[in-house]
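Recall the central idea of this unit: under ordinary conditions, the amino acid sequence of a chain determines the structure it adopts. In this exercise we apply that idea directly, starting from the sequence alone.
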Amino acid sequence: MTSPIPAPGEPLPHYVSTAPFDPYSVEVMTEEQVRVNQASQLRLMWWKFKRHKLALASGIFLAILYVMILFCEFLAPYNLHTRNVDFIYTPPQPVHFFHDGAFVGPFVYGRTMTLDMDTLKRNYADNPADVEPIRFFCRGDSYRFWGLFETNLHLACPAEGGELFLLGTDRLGRDVLSRIIYGARISLTIGLLGITVSFVLGIVIGGLAGYHGGVFDLIVQRLIEVLQSIPSIPLWLSLAAIMPATWSPILIYLGITVILGLLDWTGLARAVRSKLLALREEDYVLAAQLMGARSSRIIGRHLVPGFMSHLIATATISIPGMILGETALSFLGLGLRPPITSWGILLTEAKSVSVIAFYPWLLFPTIPVILVILAFNFLGDGLRDAADPYK
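Accordingly, the structure predicted from this sequence is:
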């Protein structure tokens, strides 16, 4: 039976249900869907970053290293400048746990040295009768912790009257492992300080060029092209040579940091400029301008946060370049100078082919350099993928 057709001019009949309506009954979501839909942007990025196992492991590895550099003096078996004149160019001592079939714990065998009169090379041989247990949380060489107070507590020490050279010694009998641990403080922090200088210059100069454009943008682009056309190593050498030889090691350290920052801001400035050229046409930028906001506030509070995740990923990729730059300058003798110790300075011991042939353990400082560079690159890949969690 069909409903009657209303006459012309009469309203159509309406039917309204008085039953209660549950909007969630239309589309029922699982607990996992609710958790994802209610998650913040930062939480989504963290979930995606955790799925990148290599980047997560690299982040943990770097975090451990940066915590370790706070306690270099405690972790190193010897003081940075301790010389063992009876053990010059000693090869690494392997760690043993069993002696004559019995468990002794971590120990090394004592060594005896003989001099080859034909080649004047020192030959070291383990003495199986001399068992030297490794001590932990022990008293050893004295040091000033961060220059604040003097103590002699170490994580690991050689046996009383013994020696412990897990990575060998150099031409002055200094422990290579201890010097690598001390050098990590300079090589790792110079990357962070250098990238800070680079980011300040890149964001400020690139932000102003992209936001205002015009003549300032033209000048900045030509300056960037000039700097990028100059070969990096000769430019590093010329800038490093400008620093007076009378400067203290701390001033040399700060000078190298500023040089690395001054040479690395160009790529970031271009990236920031291109982003701001696109974002400055958005409606919220016009609204901020009409409300009287200054250019610095618009750039810092409205534009830069829009691509902060990209900047973070760029930083993690740029830090390895800073570390390699310091290592190259120090290796060439134009960077940091003793008594400051970095991984680049340690590698100056291995300049000669004959040294590498007879004492290959002097190349061990290259291992942490390679591991840190790879870790930063993997971390940067993970952060770059996590920056857009919806892909």
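The CA atoms of residues 1 and 354 lie 107 Å apart.
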